[in-house]
Design a protein that fits this description.
Layout (H helix, E strand, L loop, with lengths): L2 H27 L18 H8 L7 H12 L3 E5 L7 E5 L10 H13 L4 E3 L8 H21 L3 E3 L3 H30 L2 H26 L2 E3 L1 H18 L12 H4 L1 H8 L4 H6 L9 E4 L6 E6 L11 H21 L4 H6 L2 H4 L2 H4 L1 H22 L4 E19 L2 E12 L5 E8 L10 E7 L4 E9 L26 H6 L2
């Protein structure tokens, strides 16, 4: 085997080793869905924020802070008053009750947020949101860590990656980065014939690769289930079923905590209090979760946005041209710049023209493979479109074109549509030339699943304008689309 082929094999083995180990660790430690128990009104001892963590597969949502605020009101630390018929006019009043020693760290954090924002012991609910995004992110991160620590102390949660998993990943990371460092050392050594630059290149490669892998592992770390946690989560999901059976519960305003006591706090933690969650906003909104009532009851829908937008929203001619260019570039590179096939077959590095020409071959083959994949996938995808009918939950401008003289035109819009079949949805790409749509419309789209590009759109019914005061209670026996603004998540993300 030639030195170049040996280096290629070492590098490929190092990359595959880490990717495989990381994928196994992620899959093996993911929290599995918890089947709910029978519907029950019996509450447990766990705080609402911990319940929010357990009910959402060990991921904290924006409702955790809001539920904690409601729980503090139910326990007498705060008082919520609603002036008039609009829940948005709710104010929070400090009761002057001294902080008990049994208040948990994240409960103190929420209480201190209200105290910091209050003037004369009063603060409107709309004033709790953070104006500074960086400060809001820090506040949210600390709250999440405090809730996770409490859940761990109760035996209901644990770190996503335990000590054994971290140790095995550390060993794999050392081996993988070391292998790539050796490849860099050998490659530079063959060019400069000096050991100092070669050693420096190898050390730099090891440090860079190891750091990138460590960041990847650290980013994935979070919480996962425990046997005791799954039992408690199933019980609380039974409480969620009981609360959802009461249709009026979803429309209770925050001030209803004086009547419903801690039930409203736990309802917020379990994601069944639409109106309350819409009014209360501690700056923890996320465009990846939006409210929907399509299908008969209010629920949160998780939205998937494309991470790599190489093909997202692209028209067929654009993709076909891209694929053709990649195929042409790969063919030209193989024909004029890559080493002869006879030299490759004989693994003769000298006859092939050196390691620089050897490196052209995999790049050219990758270009050919990518171009062929794009051409075939484009042809297949645009021959098999998908039709979706549902409620438009959220829209955001994705791309704009400058026409000059201060004029701009929208060329692409993110659009999230809920068909009511599951609690997940994807962001479709709506071109600017197609009919316009707005939040709360019920529409039918025909789209290409691979590129998420909408081909045609038909609005079946216009959305209902207005605010909370104009929103009737959700009625499953009536039109499935009820209510108005899906919640704080949509307000944060909409254009």
């Amino acid at each position: 085997m030639t030195p170049v082929l040996l280096d290629v094999n070492i590098a490929a083995t190092a990359v595959v080793l880490f990717a495989a180990a990381y994928a196994v660790a992620v899959v093996a430690t993911r929290p599995l869905p918890v089947p709910p128990d029978e519907a029950t009104p019996e509450l447990g001892d766990e705080p609402p924020a911990v319940v929010n963590l357990l009910a959402n597969r060990w991921k904290l949502t924006a409702d955790a802070a809001e539920a904690t605020l409601l729980d503090l009101a139910a326990r007498g630390y705060l008082e919520l008053r609603q002036a008039g018929a609009d829940p948005a006019h709710t104010t929070i009043h400090l009761t002057g009750r001294a902080e008990d020693a049994d208040l948990l760290p994240y409960e103190r954090r929420v209480l201190h947020r209200v105290q910091d924002m209050a003037t004369g012991g009063v603060v409107p609910v709309g004033a709790l949101a953070f104006r500074n995004r960086a400060r809001g992110r820090r506040w949210r991160t600390r709250l999440r860590k405090e809730v996770a620590a409490d859940a761990r102390a109760r035996g209901l949660s644990r770190r996503r990656f335990g000590d054994a998993t971290y140790f095995l990943l550390f060993v794999v990371m050392v081996a993988s980065s070391g292998g790539l460092g050796v490849v860099a050392l050998r490659g530079v050594g063959r060019v400069v014939e000096d050991w100092q630059p070669a050693v420096s290149a190898g050390a730099a490669a090891i440090l860079a690769v190891f750091t990138a892998q460590a960041v990847t592992v650290g980013y994935t770390d979070g919480e996962r289930d425990t046997p005791a946690g799954r039992i408690v989560a199933a019980r609380w999901l039974g409480v969620q079923r009981w609360l959802r059976a009461h249709e009026e519960f979803a429309d209770l305003p925050p001030a209803a905590v004086t009547v419903w006591d801690r039930y409203l706090a736990y309802g917020s933690a379990l994601g069944v209090t639409h109106t309350t969650s819409e009014v209360l906003d501690l700056g923890l909104g996320d465009r990846r979760t939006v409210w929907s009532s399509y299908g008969g009851h209010w629920r949160r829908v998780r939205v998937h946005f494309p991470r790599l937008r190489l093909h997202y929203g692209r028209p067929a001619p654009h993709l076909a041209a891209r694929g053709a260019v990649a195929v042409l570039a790969g063919a030209v590179a193989l024909q004029f710049f890559a080493p002869p096939l006879s030299a490759i077959a004989a693994m003769d590095e000298d006859a092939a023209g050196g390691w620089l020409r050897w490196s052209v071959t995999p790049i050219a083959l990758a270009a050919l493979a990518y171009g062929g994949y794009v051409l075939v996938r484009t042809a297949v995808a645009h021959a098999t479109t998908r039709t979706v009918t549902g409620e438009v939950l959220w829209t955001e401008v994705a791309q704009e074109s400058d026409l000059g003289e201060g004029r701009r035109v929208v060329t692409l819009t993110h659009m999230v549509i809920d068909d009511g079949t599951r609690d997940r949805a994807s962001a479709w790409a709506l071109p600017g030339g197609i009919a316009r749509v707005q939040d709360r419309d019920v529409a039918t789209i025909r789209a290409v699943p691979w590129t998420r590009r909408v081909v045609s759109l038909t609005v079946l019914r216009q959305g209902r304008p207005g605010g909370l005061r104009d929103t009737p209670a959700p009625d499953p026996s009536d039109d499935p689309v009820t209510g108005d603004d899906p919640g704080p998540e949509q307000r944060h993300g909409s254009s």
